[in-house]
Design a protein that fits this description.
Layout (H helix, E strand, L loop, with lengths): L1 H40 L1
């Protein structure tokens, strides 16, 4: 049981941080995409 707790602590935290960073980057990429589309139409 203690091995599972250590595994979750070692693996779970980096996964959580990765998902958080991907979420933040997604919003920025969407803004860049919108800006590029508006430049293309102009």
């Amino acid at each position: 049981m203690q091995e599972w707790v250590m595994l979750v602590q070692e693996i779970g935290f980096p996964i959580l941080v990765s998902f958080y960073l991907l979420y933040r980057i997604e919003a920025k990429l969407e803004a860049i995409h919108t800006a590029l589309l508006s430049m293309n139409q102009a």
